[in-house]
């Protein structure tokens, strides 16, 4: 936006952060409201970009929680990988997701393995939901009032979702796994009053929006998302443990022909099998093949929060990881208008993890050298 444009939009003198004038999309991705609407972009008294109604297909929010950090563990686990705190750390809620069941808690052969939550546990006003796989043994929860609830193999085998109403349990104090030989339950997820409990470093907010298999958000088509040859910048915080093969997507668009039409697509990935596992940005391939990869120059699949940004000016692409310039690439490919929606975490392969504070600028290359990653959108 030029100085004249600022005058026209009643935004003169311009604010100290002129980059806000170029925002076409901003999403905090921090809780239930952020799953239904994006945030409007406002300059002065003018709305430069409206809030947008989102279509949410399964994405949900998690509550990073230090109560688990203060928990005590008794008994013995099966081996070094089947740790109860690690099961909460990973936060997978489906047996068979990457890392599960190896990431799920599992008791030792013929033994028990118990977590007692710190700070008196979790008060329950609606219900608790426990997700696990069981092929023997049993799983027990205790409400702190000597009232135990047990789920046994006789109540079903395989992947289980066990719901206990608040009328039966008002305070969740502990979870115990019991192995009946060399079989027993793999614990993989806990929800209290509809919020998944995850022992995980939060970034900016109390909740993290989580994406996984068939869990994504779509934003209606808008010509403001067409990139052509204009400068633009995309940035967000991302956290994923998934370094397996495939092509998950943070955000992207594709038109007719879907994900396989390489002339009518762009997307931003936390990793790519054909890119050494590093994050990248994919542009339409003028040769008609899947080779339009702009290498981000770094890996972000260690399940820690990372800020990543891609910035284009002319034919120069700059890729930043945690504020550091990690690659510069020359690429003159045009990104054509696309007739499809903008999608978060929807692509050829599942994106498992969290995205937060996503900002999409059109008309400006916000970053050209090293910088300090920005704070929260909702500061």
CATH T-level fold name of the largest domain:
Jelly Rolls
Helix/strand-derived category reads mainly beta
CATH top level class name of the largest domain: Mainly Beta
Q: In what range is the share of β-strand residues?
A: 35-45%
Q: What is the succession of H and E elements?
A: HEEEEEEHEEEEEEEEEEEEEEEEEEEEEE
What would you call the shape? Answer: elongated
Number of strands: 28
Number of domains: 2
SS summary, helix count: 2
Report the uncertain regions.
1-16, 95-102
Describe the protein in words:
- By secondary structure, the protein is mainly beta.
- The chain has two domains: 215 residues, Jelly Rolls, CATH 2.60.120.200; 133 residues, Jelly Rolls (Sandwich), CATH 2.60.120.
- Helices cover 3% and strands 37% of the residues.
- It has two helices and 28 strands.
- The strands form five sheets. Strands 1, 5, 9, 12, 15, 16, 17, 19, 24, 25, 26 and 28 form a twelve-stranded mixed sheet that branches.
- A hairpin with a 2-residue loop joins strand 2 and strand 3.
């Amino acid at each position: 936006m030029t100085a004249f444009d600022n005058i026209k939009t009643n935004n003169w003198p311009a604010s100290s952060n002129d980059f806000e004038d170029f925002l076409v999309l901003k999403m905090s991705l921090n809780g239930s409201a952020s799953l239904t609407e994006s945030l409007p972009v406002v300059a002065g008294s003018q709305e430069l970009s409206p809030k947008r109604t989102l279509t949410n297909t399964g994405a949900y929010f998690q509550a990073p929680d230090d109560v688990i950090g203060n928990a005590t563990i008794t008994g013995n686990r099966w081996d070094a990988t089947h740790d109860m705190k690690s099961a909460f750390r990973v936060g997978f809620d489906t047996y068979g997701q990457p890392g599960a069941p190896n990431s799920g808690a599992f008791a030792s052969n013929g033994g028990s393995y118990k977590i007692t939550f710190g700070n008196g546990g979790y008060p329950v006003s609606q219900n608790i939901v426990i997700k696990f796989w069981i092929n023997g043994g049993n799983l027990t929860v205790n409400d702190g009032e000597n009232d135990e609830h047990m789920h046994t193999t006789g109540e079903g085998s395989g992947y289980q979702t066990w719901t206990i109403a608040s009328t039966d349990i008002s305070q969740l104090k502990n979870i115990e796994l019991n192995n009946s030989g060399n079989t027993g339950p793999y614990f993989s997820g806990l929800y209290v009053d509809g919020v998944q409990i995850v022992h995980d470093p939060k970034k900016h907010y109390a909740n993290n929006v989580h994406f996984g298999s068939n869990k994504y958000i779509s934003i209606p088509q808008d010509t403001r998302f067409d990139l052509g040859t204009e400068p633009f910048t995309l940035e967000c915080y991302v956290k994923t443990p998934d370094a397996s093969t495939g092509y998950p997507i943070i955000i992207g668009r594709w038109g007719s022909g879907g994900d396989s039409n390489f002339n009518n697509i762009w997307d931003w990935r936390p990793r790519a099998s054909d890119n050494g596992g590093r994050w990248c940005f994919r542009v339409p391939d003028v040769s008609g093949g899947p080779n339009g990869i702009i290498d981000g120059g770094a890996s972000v699949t260690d399940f820690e929060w990372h800020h990543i940004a891609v910035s284009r000016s002319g034919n120069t692409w700059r890729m930043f990881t945690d504020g550091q310039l990690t690659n510069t690439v020359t690429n003159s490919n045009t990104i054509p208008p696309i007739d499809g929606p903008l999608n978060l975490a929807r692509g050829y392969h599942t994106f498992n993890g969290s995205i937060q504070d996503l900002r999409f600028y059109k008309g400006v290359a916000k970053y050209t050298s090293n910088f300090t990653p920005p704070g929260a959108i909702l500061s």
